[in-house]
Write a structure and sequence with these properties.
alpha+beta, Ribosomal Protein S5, domain 2, 4-stranded antiparallel sheet, globular, binds adenosine-5'-diphosphate, binds magnesium ion
Length: about 375
Amino acid sequence: MGAEQQVRADFVELYGAEPEGVWAAPGRVNLIGEHTDYNDGFVMPFALPHTATAAVSRRTDGRLRLHSADIEDGVAELRLDDLTPESDRAWTAYPAGVVWALREAGHPVTGADIHLTSTVPSGAGLSSSAALEVVVALALNDLFELGLARWQLARLCQRTENVYVGAPTGIMDQTASACCEAGHALFLDTRDLSQQQIPFDLAAEGMRLLVVDTQVKHAHSDGEYGKRRAGCEKGAALLGVDALRDIAYADLDAALERLGDEEEVRCLVRHVVTEDQRVERVVSLLKSGETRAIGPVLVEGHASLRDDFRISCPELDLVVDTALAGGALGARMTGGGFGGSAIVLVEAADVDTITKAVEEAFAAAGFTAPRVFEAVPSAGARRLA
Ligand code: ADP
Ligand code: MG
């Protein structure tokens, strides 16, 4: 049975009626543009084939029933009037928060029965949280005929995560899940949310992109994220700009000089300004068909995250170093850092040898075995039935 049929059958068993529809929303990997989204900068994610899938029906009695097939005891019944930001530390905060955000924005959502399941690895830096939010938002947008555009749904989902769940994330994850297209990476300007779909069909050019989930989950990543974010804001304030995005690459040296002995802030600023420039370089390389040449740009991005932003970890560095030693075209950590996943760009013929080399290096270092899979740029959120 496919995911759609399974979710539908489970919904019928749980709630005793057919769902009104079934929707899917993907996780994402970010090709380049890390920690730029809260600096009004550029990002370039693409959607994974892994999705959250939800079967949903409307209710009219102000109740919200939630069920996840992937969580033990993953069932909850809530009253819409009781939904309060940061009151819920469980998985239910993501779908319930979407309902809260929609109602808070004045949209007439009167209740729902939701059953969901997800193939997006959770906590691996691949945005399982955004997939959950976006699949629920799209379903409710369709069922209640709210008429919201994809970018508006992404904004509401970001608000869900920031305010209701209480995680200070940028706009990239939700926009990627809502707006990506198969065979493309999404070049997104996080200041005005303008987008370009950039063709990114590696298979046609004899390459593959591997995702290596290190299985490392850093307990302090939220606090460290907050510190980096605050440091970037301090940098922008010291330099007299709204956001670090406003520092042109050509003006970077002068900006660093102005920051004087603020060493920590200088490093954060240098990462963000060079990272924005790396996104622009990758976009122009892909547009001119020089796909293999993005490899070294990915490697530069990793070095910047490791040395200037200081959010890598031994496992992520080992993936990158081993892959490059084994002949990969490029590699870097992806996502928020302190664990999660790395991406590796390889010639198709090298997939097996590089995968094996990474697995052996992890075993030799005594690390938990990584999960390696191929990422094919896939479709964004959609209605399945
Ligand atoms: P990431 O988005 O990188 O995967 P997050 O910590 O932002 O990591 O989101 C992971 C959380 O999302 C989980 O702790 C859980 O609460 C929720 N989640 C993810 N997948 C599911 C699922 N299939 N069912 C229920 N909750 C899920
Ligand atoms: Mg997340």
